Amino acid sequence: MVLYFSGTGNSRRVAECLGEKLNEDVFPLVRFIETDSVCVLKEHEALGIVFPVYSWGPPIVVLDALTRLQTCHVPDFIYFVCTCGDDVGKTADILKNAIAHKGWECEAGFSVMMPNTYVCLPGFDVDSERLANLKLCNMKERIAFIAKCITERKAVFDCHEGMFPHVKSYLIRPLFNRFLISPKRFRVTNNCISCGKCVQVCPLHNIRLDGYPVWGKHCTMCLACYHHCPEHAVEYGLWSKGKGQFALKEERG
Ligand SMILES: Cc1cc2nc3c(=O)[nH]c(=O)nc-3n(C[C@H](O)[C@H](O)[C@H](O)COP(=O)(O)O)c2cc1C
Ligand code: SF4
Ligand code: SF4
Fold first, then answer.
1. What's the CATH fold of domain 183-236?
2. What's the predicted TM-score (pTM) here?
């Protein structure tokens, strides 16, 4: 079984491609938490967790969901696949520790480079169309490799840590989580047509429409609301001004 968390569709696409290759079911991770239901695994079925990298680590919402996830038995083989724009720092260690805290063992982990979605700080923007397409093309070969490793139950960690991974994951990430994950800076411009798309795409149901969108406190900064807005009317403070949008459409329901 493949469980995923995704804001703008990259991790969902990776999870779906992997599910297809492995011939396994694919579900949103938060569904089991929201419904407080038990994830039923077949005998000897592997459990894969797919998620985006946020500031060189797993999103807090994913770590929380993993803590609360209930399965019918301890999964035989647990692995993760993280998607990133560039590099993932010590994401593997952070995720492995979270799984170990549960008394389980994460036996394999992989990163997959996908189109970048972070636009909320100066110097960060979406990729050019050419680079985004190149990453999407390369993704297929990467998923084939990952699926082969999973089928063979290979205990392998193959993640692109990048430069200064400790500094990024253990110094910058806590500051990012403390000061830059906040829905307070979201606002809409006069271009908003009150279509409700942002409400619909928020994976955490954190937005309501009161004439215009109103952001609640339960935000993980996935930026689905920003990237999916058909009028490009969502801004994050002044830092997202003039930046691009990127979101993958769902391929199946
Ligand atoms: C809040 C935030 C932080 C991010 N931090 C990183 C990062 O540290 N390293 C990186 O390579 N990409 C980073 N990205 C890019 C995403 O990890 C990447 O685009 C991912 O594939 C998005 O997945 P999704 O479409 O499933 O949400 C970040 C994106 C967001 C929204
Ligand atoms: S998606 Fe954009 S246009 Fe539609 S309600 Fe949200 S902010 Fe307004
Ligand atoms: S409010 Fe926007 S950024 Fe926050 S979780 Fe929802 S869609 Fe993601």
1. Alpha-Beta Plaits (3.30.70)
2. 0.97
